[in-house]
Amino acid sequence: MARFEYAPAPESRAVVSLRSSYGLFIDGAFVEPVDGGSFNTISPATEEVLAEVALAGAGDVERAVAAARRAQREVWAPMPGAERGKYLFRVARIIQERARELAVLESLDNGKPIRESRDVDVPLAAAHFFYYAGWADKLDYAGFGPAPRPLGVAGQIIPWNFPLLMAAWKLAPALATGSTCVLKPAETTPLSALLLAEIFQQAELPPGVVNILTGDGATGAALVARRDLDKVAFTGSTEVGKAIQRELAGTRTRLSLELGGKAANIVFEDAPLSQAIEGIVNGIFFNQGHVCCAGSRLLVQESVAEGVLDALKERLGTLRLGDPLDKNTDIGAINSGRQLDKIVELAASGEREGAERWSPSCAIPERGYWFPPTIFTGVAPSQRIAREEIFGPVLSVLTFRTPDEAVQKANNTTYGLSAGVWTEKGSRILWMADRLRAGVVWANTFNRFDPTSPFGGYRESGFGREGGRHGLEEYLDA
Amino acid sequence: MPEGRLAVNKTYKLYVAGAFPRSESGRSYPVHAADGALLANAALASRKDLRDAVVAARAAQPKWARTTAYNRGQVLYRIAEMLEERAAQFAEQVARSEGLAGAEAGRLVAASVDRLVYYAGWSDKLAQIAGAANPVAGPYFNFSLPEPTGVIGVVAPPGSSLLGLVSVLAPVIVTGNAAVVVASEERPVPAVTFAEVLATSDVPGGVVNLLTGRLAELAPVLAAHRDVDGLDLCGISEQDAAALERAAADNVKRVLRREVAPDWERRPSPRRMLHFVETKTVWHPIGA
To answer: For residue A54, what are the domain limits?
Structure first.
C-alpha cells in the first residue's frame, strides 16, 4: 500500500516557560525542601534535562500535612459549598485557558504524543474539575446520607502515565467534599503538577488546600507512613498498592487503590471489523500502552482471527513513532529507562516461552527511550506476557470459539480493571458485560473516559471508584 | 420432660456446602453457658475445613449471584420465617449462651428476624440507589451497577451470638456474595442452630458456610486465603486486627475493619452491603 509521507509538524515549545528549578508547593507557596534535596526531570524523548525539582523528605511531608490540616479545619470545610465550588470552576477555566501550555509541558515531561495530551489529557482534566465543582454545594443529594461531612486530609499518590489527568481525578472530588490534599506526583513526571500549582495560585485557592510534594518512592512512603491522614488514595502498580494496604493495616486511615490490569479486548466474528481494528490499536497503543486499563490481551474469535490479524498488522504499519511534539505522531516515547527495561524483559520472555513476535518496520530515534508497537501471536494463557502487566505497547493475541470460552479466558487473571467487547449484537454486549469481572466494560469502543463515569477495579486491580457520584464517597465521612 | 427419661442431645457440627460434617480433624471443644454449665462439644474446625468451606463458597457463588434479586429477597425472607418459627428455641440458646433473661433473649431473636426482613427488602433496591445512569459526553449509554464482590470471609461478633451474626451475614449474602463464617468462639451454639435454619430456607448449599472453632487458628488462614475476595473483621480483637489486615493485602481483599463497640440493635444503613459490592460501569454504544 502506498504510504503518505508527512512533513514534520512540531508544536512550538515557546508556549512553555520552564524554570531551571522548582520548589515544593506547601501552604500556597513554592518553598525549598527542609533537607535541600533535588533531582532532575528529563524528556524521555531526548534525555534532555528539563528542570531540577525539589525532593521532599519526611520533614516536608510533615509541613504539608500540617498545612492541609489547618486549611481543612479553618478554611475549606467551613466554607459554604457554593464558594468551594466556585474555586473549582475557576481552576477548570484556567486549565482550559492554559490548555496548550499544559499539553506541551505534559508531552515534554512524559513523552506522550501532543495530539493525545492536547485532545485527551488536558480537556478531561478540566472536565473533571468542572464536574466536581458542581457537586460541592449538592452533597446532601449525593445519596450518602444527610449532611455528609468531608473526610479530612487526603494523601494522594499518582502515576506517571497521565500526570495532569490523574492529579485532577484525585484532587477534584476531594476538594468538592471539603477535604484537603497532599499530592505526590510521580518521580519522572512532576512538571504538570507544578504548573497546576501555579494555576491554583492564579485561582487564589486558599493556601494549604492543595499541597504538592515532588519526590521519589521514599517521599510517597513517608506520606503513607504518617498516622494523621484520614485517607490515602493511590494509583500505580499492584505491588506498591499491596504494600500500602499492608502499611495501613490496623489503622483507621481510609484507602482507595487503582492498580494494574491485564484487560481482555474481545472481538466477535460479527463485530464491525474496521472499527474493531481501530479499537484494538487504541486499546493497547494509546499512550504507548502506559495505561492501567489497556487492552493488552486481544481475544479474537477463531473464525475471523486471521483476517483481524492481517488488518491489524497493516494498520500498525501506518503508525508513526517519534517526536512527541509532532502533531502527526501516534506513538511517543517510553516514559523512562526503567520502564523500557521492564518492557524489553517481558517481551523477551514472550519469545523465550514460545510466542511469536511481530513488529512493523519502524525507525527508532537514536536518543531517548523507545519501543516499537509489538504483537505476540500463539500466546498461551500460562505465559508471562498473557498474565503480567507489561505497561507498554505490546499486545498478546489469543483466540476463542464460544462466548463462554471468551468469558472464561477474559476472567482468567488476578486483575479486573477493564474489558472490551466488539459485536453488533446488543444483547450479547450486555450478556458479556454481566459476566466479565471488570470494573469498566467498553462495548465497541475502548479507553474512553468521562468525569461522570465511575472508574476502578475488581480483584487485584484495586478498590474504590474515581469519577461520577461514586467518586465522592471516597472523600466523605458518611 | 417425663421423669426418668434421658434427653437425646444434639451433636453440633459444621455447616459446609449445605451439609453438616464433623471437622475432618475429628476434634471438638467444650462450649459452656454463661453460668458455666456444659452446653455442647462443638466441632473444632481445622484449617483444612476452612479451605473446604472456601471451595464450597466459590462453587456456589456465581449461581447465587445470577439468581434474580427478587428471588434472593424471597430466600432471605424465608430465613426470617424459619427463624421466627423456632424463636423459642433460639431464645433459650441465646439466653444460656449470653447469660440473659428469657425476655431479653426473646427480644434479640425478634430483632434478628426483623433484621433478615430488612435485608430481604434490600435485594432488589440496592442497585437502584447504588447504581447510576451517567451522562457521558458521547454517544454511549453509560451505566453503573453494584455487583457482588465474590467470596467473603466473615468473623462473626464474639458477644452477640445470633443478632450480631445475622447482622453481618445478611448484608453479605443478599447482594449475591457467598460467605465463609467463623462463628463466635465462646458462643457458637445459636450459630450452629442458625445453620439448620439456613439449610431449610432455600439457601443454596455453599452460599453460607459456618465453622466453629478457634479464631487464632482459623482467622489467619481466612485472611490470607487467595480465593477469598473480602473480609469482615467485625469479631476480631483490636490487637489481632493489624496482622489479619496485612495478610488480606496479599490479594487486595476488601476489608471491613472491626468496629469499636458496635450496637447491633440500631437500625443499619446500607453501608455493610455497599462494602462488599463492586461498581461495574458499562459503555454501551448508541447508533441507528
So the answer is: 17-259+458-477
- pLDDT tens profile B167-221: 999 999 999 999 999 999 999 999 999 999 999 999 999 999 999 999 999 999 9
> Are residue A148 and residue A35 in the same domain, yes or no?
yes
* Rounded Cα distance, A369 and A343, in Å: 11
Q: Is B282 exposed, middle or buried (0-12, 13-18, 19+ CB in 10 A)?
A: buried
Residue A265 to chain B, least CA–CA distance (Å): 14
Any idea what the CATH number is for the domain that residue A317 is in?
A: 3.40.309.10
Same domain, A211 and A327: no
Phi, psi angles (nearest 5°) of residue A399 = -120, 165
Residues 6+ apart with CB under 8 A from B26: none
The complex's ipTM?
A: 0.96
- If asked whether residues A93 and A206 sit together in one domain, one would say yes
Are B134 and A452 within 8 A, CB to CB?
A: yes
Q: Point out the residue among A246, A445, A460 whose CB comes nearest to the CB of B283.
A: A445
Taking 90 as the threshold, does the pLDDT of residue A36 lie above it? no
Burial A336-373 (b: 16+ CB within 10 A, else e): beebbebbeebbeebeeeebeeebbeeeeeeebbbbbb
Q: How many domains does chain A have?
A: 2
Instruction: Judge if A433 and A314 occupy the same domain.
Output: yes
Chain mean position to CA A289: 11
Residues in chain A with CB shorter than 8 Å from the CB of B231 are none
Closest CA–CA distance from residue A459 to any residue of chain B (Å): 7
Residues A163 and A278 in one domain: no
Is residue B28 helix, strand or coil? strand
Radius of gyration of chain A (CA): 22
How far is residue A457's CA from residue B104's CA, in Å, rounded to a whole number? 45
In a domain, A244, yes or no: yes
Please, is B67 exposed, middle or buried when counting C-beta atoms within 10 Å of its C-beta (0-12, 13-18, 19+)? middle
| B121 Ramachandran zone, left/alpha/beta (phi>0; psi -120 to 50) | alpha
What's the gap in Å between the CA of B257 and the closest CA on chain A?
8
pLDDT value at position B1? 57
Both A288 and A221 in one domain: the answer is no
Contact between residue A328 and residue A6 where contact means Cβ atoms under 8 Å apart:
yes
| Distance from the Cα of residue A117 to its chain's centroid | 12
Nearest to A38 by CA among A11, A57, A59: A57
Best CA proximity match to A46, nearest among A366, A392, A373, A393 = A366
* Active site positions of A, annotated: 258, 292
Angle, vertex CA A247, rays to CA A245 and CA A248, nearest 5: 65
pLDDT tens digits for range B43-88: 999 999 999 999 999 999 999 999 999 999 999 999 999 999 999 9
* Distance (Å, whole) CA A391 – CA A258: 14
- Per residue in A427-437, pLDDT (tens digit) is 999 999 999 99
- Output the pLDDT for position A210: 98
In this structure, the answer to whether residues A45 and A187 fall within a common structural domain is yes
| Cβ-Cβ contacts under 8 Å, B224 against chain A | none
What is the CATH T-level fold of the domain B28-285, as seen in this structure?
A: Aldehyde Dehydrogenase; Chain A, domain 1 (3.40.605)
Domain ranges of chain B: 28-285
Pairing of strands B140-148, B132-134: antiparallel
Q: Do the beta carbons of residue B284 and residue B142 sit within 8 Å? A: yes
Q: Are residues A289 and A190 both part of a single domain?
A: no
Which grid coordinates are listed for A20?
Answer: 531551571
